Amino acid sequence: MQIKTDFLKQRVDRPLPKAPEPARPKTHWDYLLEEMAWLAKDMEKERRWKAKQAKRFVFAVVRGRHDLESRGLRQVRINVPASVNMKIYEERLFQKNMLGSNTR
Q1: What global pTM score does this model have?
Q2: Burial class (CB in 10 A: 0-12, 13-18, 19+), 83
Q3: 65 and 57 in contact (C-beta within 8 Å)?
Q4: Structural domains of the chain, count
Q5: b/e for 4-32, b at 16 or more Cβ within 10 A?
Q6: How many other C-beta atoms can be found within 10 angstroms of the C-beta atom of residue 68?
Q7: Does the residue 101 lie in any domain?
């Protein structure tokens, strides 16, 4: 009898282990929280990437300026495609014709 009471005292002193939670199906809220976590990580990654690209761009611009200054070039000529030049020409011609017809 003494052995049984000692065993029971030991069992009472220790708390029972927690029962495992039953598995539940994912709800809309669970999917929403997963999406929010993914989006936060993606935004952080994109922000770091943009900062790196901006830094790389600034260094390229500075390097290009130093190259131009060392060669003594101050103006940089930009080659515009012929289609853009033609559109500008047509627009100016149209405006000239419209203004010319209004003044008569």
Answers
A1: 0.42
A2: exposed
A3: no
A4: 1
A5: eeeeeeeeeeeeeeeeeeeeeeeeeeeee
A6: 13
A7: no
Within a domain: residue 9?
Answer: no
Amino acid (1-letter code) at residue 99: L
Give the single-character DSSP code of 14. S
Q: Is 85 within the bounds of a domain? A: no
For tokens 């999406």, the residue is 35
pLDDT in tens, the chain (104 residues): 566 666 666 666 677 788 888 999 999 999 999 999 999 999 999 999 999 999 998 888 888 776 666 666 555 566 666 777 777 878 888 888 877 655 44
Residue 55 lies in a domain: yes
